[in-house]
Design a protein that fits this description.
The complex is a heterodimer of chains A (462) and B (441). Chain A is α+β, with helices and mostly antiparallel strands. Chain A has 2 domains: 203 residues, Metalloenzyme, LuxS/M16 peptidase-like (Cytochrome Bc1 Complex, Chain A, domain 1, 2-Layer Sandwich); 196 residues, Cytochrome Bc1 Complex, Chain A, domain 1. Chain A is 45% helix and 18% strand. Chain A is built from 17 helices and 12 strands. In chain A, the strands form 2 sheets. A 6-stranded mixed sheet of chain A has the order 1-2-6-3-5-4, with helices on both faces. In chain A, strands 9-10-8-11-7-12 form a 6-stranded mixed sheet, with helices on both faces. In chain A, a hairpin with a 4-residue loop joins strand 9 and strand 10. Chain B folds into 2 domains: 207 residues, Cytochrome Bc1 Complex, Chain A, domain 1 (2-Layer Sandwich), CATH 3.30.830; 191 residues, Cytochrome Bc1 Complex, Chain A, domain 1, CATH 3.30.830. Chain B is built from 16 helices and 11 strands. In chain B, the strands form 2 sheets. Chain B has a 6-stranded mixed sheet with strand order 1-2-6-3-5-4, sandwiched between helices. Chain B is globular, with a radius of gyration of 23 Å. The chains are: A alpha+beta (462), B alpha+beta (441). Chains A and B meet through helix 1, helix 3, strand 5, helix 4 and helix 13 of A and helix 2, strand 5, helix 3, helix 8 and helix 13 of B.
Amino acid sequence: MTAPTTADRRSAEEIGRTEAGPRELPPLRPQPEVPAPDEADTVLTTGLRVIAVRRPGVPMVEVRLRIPFSGEGSEDPRYAAVAEVLASTVLSGTTRRSRVSLDDDLAGVGGEMGFSVDPERLAAAGHALADGLPTLLDVLADVLAGATYPADEVTRERERLAERIQVASAQPSVIARRALQRHRYGDHPVTREMPEVDDVASVTPDDLLATHRRKVVPRGSVLVLVGDIDPTTAVAAAEAALASWDAPGEAGLLPSLPALHGSELLLVDRPGAVQSQLRLSAAAVARTDPRYPALQLANLAFGGYFSSRLVENLREDKGYTYHASSSLEFDPYGAALLVETDCASEVTAPALLEMRYELGRAAVVPPSESELESARRYAVGSLLISLNTQAGLASTLAGLAGVGLDSGWVREHPRRLEAVTPDEVAAAAVEFLAPSRFTGVVVADAARSAESLRALGGIRVP
Amino acid sequence: MSTAPTSTAPAAPRSPGAERQRLTLGNGLRVLLAPDRTNPVVGVAVHVDVGFRSEPEGRTGFAHLFEHLMFQGSESLEKLAHFRHVQGSGGVFNGSTHQDYTDYFQILPAGALERGLFLEADRLRAPKLTAENLANQIDVVKEEIRLNVLNRPYGGFPWILLPPVLYSTYPNAHNGYGDFRDLETSTLDDAAAFFDAYYAPGNAVLTVVGDFDPDDAAALVERHFGDIPARPVPARPSFGEPVPDGERYESVVDPHAPLPALALGYRLPDPAADLRGYLAHAVLGSLLTDGEAARLTQRLVYGDGLVTDVSAAAGLMGAPLDARDPDTFTVTAVHPDSVDPRQVVDAVDAELALLAEKGPEPEELRRVTARWASALYREHDRLMNRMLALGSAELVHGRAELSDELPAEIAAVTPEAVAEAAAALRPDSRALLVLTPGAQA
């Protein structure tokens, strides 16, 4: 191409306007409903709940398994270490397969599988080409009924884990999370999201075998299959493949959590820190509560997405932070609000002041009509988009099953959101977002921020 | 136990092509409509036929900088309005700059289709290019470069650091993120010239996917894009250059890297002329480093412990078929201080020689291609990824269908083709970049 000379091409100013002038933004059209999927939901004689959903599109199947993994014994601090090593080594070999042959068999059907654990549940997530479902289920059953925890694999994995934990423990976000959990939940098992290095080093194959026998059980667990499958056939295939997984007992539920009350924040000193972590939390309600849809919208308008008051204030207006958010954390019994931001050390107290200001404003100056409508459109649209993949749907259904909800809840939720009135949102904001309801932690260099935080008040400074 | 190979070849792709429609508007804009009525979600993407290989000398990083400017408002939309309208509809948006194209896209609830088309059309017709936004976005891009390149270990390794070793001409060799001095001296008039030259409607592809009626969508596309005036479409230059006639060597120091690393770069076959050969290289990359049992992973990580991490892939940016010829096959490895880079290179050469002589085991190859197929299907299950794959295949290779056919094409790669690809990665025609950790002098 020969570059045109300045004379015969347009200036930036000319490019930015047309003869017709600015145009009107087209309105949104009515949003079509999500069709009800072809679905089976049943409890097998072993006690395992199986949910299978037909979602064609690509010739794949997604699998999620969720085993409540707390209960008896979980109060022992060492339990978190056993659980973590178990999740990291459960795929290291079975009575029928080595680590490599587990991986080879999965690869043969385009499959992958992984396990993870947190204080609430042990989870498996995997996928395969749809016609490889029998192999995927066979590998899963093999692991659930016959994991052997070979000594050399356990040793290697313990070392790897210890290294990873050491690295992670130095991360400011992890320090803040640990401090918040202890501050709001004391010594409850929910606080042990990451085990101690010394505990990990002490885990033996016998610990793992014993814990697997007692805790990896079908009764109370849920298996979700989503993909290019026939739900009835898939349930039958799961029943046949998993018949050998019939360990007695009931999966262990997380003990109920201490109630959250408003209290002084805690300043956690991190000498030399260039950035501070602010984490505020308050009691909220579960998805089944009639106030939930209004709370969801009130929280979005306050700080639940980019176009919210909290983000526009802290980020766009003040430039204190790259990121600020307010979200709901769910547990088997209810939920908690979590308001968080990371900011430069020198604006720690000003950022906390603005967070409290926006919480107070949320409670006494309810969202305007346009703020509410924007939050409503975002809530309905983002739910829709998150469920638009086999993997997204499978993960959502497994999570909802953990709190006793099913796909019907997801399908009906947009209607609930549409029905929420401005008065209900205002009431939810007063009830849940009032600053006096919050507790939390600030992780910061005390030498640089203690004085101004003390001046603000409502925070325990060491 | 032995598993019956139930999935010898992935299922044939459904033929969504049957329902697809192509249109060309009067102003030259190519339109691809790919309806999928399974869920009430839609996607809109604009792929423009200009990437960082086309930016002028002295203006490194300009294609990417310009991408940022396109989010800063247009005749009908003030600054930030784009973000608000997309998020306020429940949607997501983004853009990205590649070697040969730049894309802009949104995923939205189906009821917001017309709004999505309006937002894309408005900036393709009349973007607001202002001095204030340019200065502001130069700062933002510099911050992005600091975050992704300058202040992190292995930043720009190998995608920025390897091309100047493997290639000799400016388009292929220069830094697509840009030098700070080039970015800082960019002017509003540069932006105007770039837009007028490359963002002509005839130089772009509009892709619309998801839950819509094709006739309705075609009418909406015409309504919003139809009156963008036609402008001359730039002739697309060839970026071809001779292959290296030896092993080209460079070394760099990375102040943040904890361990030494190396990158090998080779030229790939031209996908337009030899698609089969190109894909054999992609499969070879997987055989070498994807999964526990991969050749180089077994040999170098679990076997002699020469490296802590090794990765091989077709495509400079890590994905195959993302660019026209010439494109790069890379092998990167991170290794302990005690290991000489040459030891790693020799081990790679030995494994390639073995594969060139004997080829992969058919069962080994089948496992790799099955995982490839399944990874592609999963990726395309996300409407956003499927849309971007269709749009880039249509723009870069002239055939959106290539994206549907890829799983089957990958499955059809033979052990012989892989052996040929391994033989083509010759020590006497490549780049070797050695990265050493340490404070910069």
